[in-house]
Amino acid sequence: MSPSDFLSQCPGLSGLNAYMRPLSVTDVKSCVEVENTFPEQERCSEEKFIYRLTVCPTLSMGLFIKTPTGGRQIGHVIGARISSNTITEASMGMPENWQSLPVSEPVVVDGQTVGNDPSGGNVAIHSVVTIPEFQGKGIGRDMVKAYVEYIREEARDVKSIVLIAHDYLIRFYEQGGFKNRGTSECRFAGGVWTDLVCDI
C-alpha cells in the first residue's frame, strides 16, 4: 500500500484532495505554524526546522490539502537519522555552528551524536502533529501509517522508526504499528515520555 492509499482511505480527509510530500526549507514557515499546536516548551524552533529540513529533508513529510492558491499544510511528521534504538536528548538537539560543518558527518559531543546522524540505521520521529481543526478524525493515525510506508519504500537501509510520546498517546501509536518499550530515559522539555518503536 502506498502512502497516498492511506490518505485516500481516511474518512477525515474525504473530499479534501489531501496529499503528503517531503518537506524542504521552503516549508519552514508553514511547519512553524503547524508546530504551534504543541505546548510552547515542546515546539520545534524555526532554527531547528531550518537545520532538520536542510540536513535530512527526505525524512520529514508534510500533510497538505489542495487550495485554489496551491496547498495548505495541515500536519507533518519530522524525522532524522540516529544510530541509537531510542530517542536521546542529544538526538533531539541541533549542533552548534552546523552550517559550517559537513552534513555527511555526525557531530559528536561528549560521546553522543547531536542531531542527525547521517549513517544512523534508525529514523527518529521528532514531531507528529495535525492542526486542531483536523484532530480527532483519524487523520494523524493515517498520516503516521503513510509515513511508515514512505520510510519502508524510500529508506530501505532503515531498521526501525523510534519516537517518544506522552502516555495518553501510546494507544494512538500502537494503532500505527509501534510497540511500547517502556519509560524513556529522555527527559525532553522536562517531561516523562514513553519509548515506542516500529520495526521496518
UniProtKB/TrEMBL annotation:
One of its GO terms (molecular function) is aralkylamine N-acetyltransferase activity. InterPro entries: Acyl_CoA_acyltransferase, GNAT_dom, SNAT-like. One of its GO terms (cellular component) is cytoplasm. This is Acyl-CoA N-acyltransferase. CDD domains: NAT_SF (cd04301). PROSITE patterns: GNAT. PANTHER family: SEROTONIN N-ACETYLTRANSFERASE. Keywords: Acyltransferase, Transferase. It comes from the Eukaryota. The keyword Acyltransferase applies. Residues 18-200 form the N-acetyltransferase domain.
